[in-house]
Specification:
The protein has 13 helices and two strands. The protein is mostly helical and about 400 residues long.
Length: about 400
């Protein structure tokens, strides 16, 4: 363990190794903490805080986070996609993968605002938030089952990963025990169900596409997850720009309703908050976290079940840490007893995932799909064909 951590904190790691997985998880963990703290600060209505509305914060933070991602992928030229097959449409030749990566970006453009929109509805959304978190875990497991049946995924979902799913759902669903009468009323609200359904469908399609890309790379073709991320983000940003233009110039809302989304969205531009630039800067950690999040979902050689669990469990732990930070610094509510119990369950789930990762790393090393780090505590004996990287 000590050697592994030393590698994680001091070395550049290889694609598909456990050490690279830990580095991505650590990066996502740190950025998610910042992402969790920012809205607590800007939406705080106590004296001395901005007291910004949810929609205003969403507009400003999302704008710069998207610009940040797109700017980096263009600067790094990640858009130079390494394709395994090209196609021609309307006289234009382009990578065939664009036919499904671009729709994945459209789905991303749906996922980003729907999370915030749930908070704007005049209903209790705690149960809806639980469903949104749990849906990603369940969807990941379903997608593995579908792609195994289709012959796309050739790997087995280990029993440890299935145990991790059960424990993760237990941790996420603990709050259901504490629901009050009326907390399930969102199912009777057409707007809430539309937003929730859009989130689940869009996320499901996106996870399927990411794993389809990951599981259909032919031998010898580079696993270009950076190119995937670049094209997806360019597509997502383009979609959000078109949606913004529509809301600004063609949509109309109810000026008498202070919670009306369209009116608040337009006012974020026409009557900007005095701290709009700070709120925009607060979106940068979210933009950075997007890199880690996508690369975890697409992590080489792992099942959607495993990758989805690592992604969601990391964010859940970071959320608890963020709650502690705002409790100590902003005197807001501390984590509840059920949150601490959920955290214990999450760490148990991570232990099972650790067992799964050792087995998977051994399997991939035997198949020579990855090379182990020089100082790794190798799960496979040299006779198994797992040689460390040079």
């Amino acid at each position: 363990m000590i050697k592994t951590l030393k590698t994680v904190f001091t070395q550049k790691t290889h694609e598909g190794t456990t050490e690279r997985l830990l580095q991505l998880s650590l990066g996502y963990f740190i950025t998610y903490i910042a992402t969790g703290i920012a809205p607590k600060y800007f939406l705080n209505t106590a004296p001395g805080y901005p007291g910004m509305s949810d929609v205003y914060f969403m507009v400003y933070s999302t704008a710069l986070s998207s610009l940040f991602c797109v700017g980096l992928v263009i600067y790094w030229k990640w858009y130079k996609f390494k394709s395994q097959q090209y196609t021609t449409m309307f006289g234009i030749t382009f990578p065939k993968e664009f036919l499904y990566i671009i729709p994945s970006g459209v789905c991303t453009a749906v996922v980003i605002p729907t999370t915030t929109l749930m908070y704007l509805l005049p209903i209790s959304v705690m149960v809806a938030m639980i469903i949104m978190r749990a849906s990603v875990i369940v969807l990941s497991r379903i997608i593995d089952a579908i792609q195994i049946k289709q012959g796309i995924l050739k790997k087995t979902v280990y029993w440890e990963e299935n145990v991790g799913v059960v424990l993760a759902l237990l941790a996420v669903g603990l709050k259901l025990y504490y629901v009050r009468p009326g907390d399930f009323d969102f199912v009777k609200n057409a707007a809430a169900m539309t937003i929730l359904s859009s989130y689940i469908v869009a996320y499901g399609i996106r996870i399927y596409i990411m794993n389809y890309f990951k599981n259909t790379r032919t031998k010898g073709v580079p696993y270009d997850n950076k190119g995937f991320f670049a094209v997806e983000q360019l597509s997502a940003s383009s979609t959000m720009i078109l949606a913004t233009l529509f809301l600004l110039f063609f949509a109309s809302g109810d000026p008498e309703n202070s919670k009306d989304f369209v009116v608040n969205f337009q006012n974020a531009f026409h009557q900007p908050h005095e701290q709009w630039f700070k709120a925009a800067l607060a979106g940068v950690p979210y933009g950075i976290g997007a890199f880690f999040s996508v690369f975890l979902f697409m992590f080489q050689g792992r099942t959607a079940t495993f990758a989805g669990l690592v992604n969601r469990l990391t964010s859940l732990i970071a959320g608890t840490v963020a709650t502690l930070v705002v409790f100590f610094l902003m005197k807001m509510k501390p984590p509840k007893p059920e949150d601490w119990f959920a955290l214990v369950v999450i760490f148990i789930a991570l232990w099972f995932l650790g067992r799964s990762e050792k087995k998977r790393a051994c399997e991939l090393a035997k198949a020579r799909e990855i090379v182990l780090e020089p100082d790794t505590e190798a799960p496979c004996a040299p006779s198994d064909g797992a040689s460390p990287a040079k």
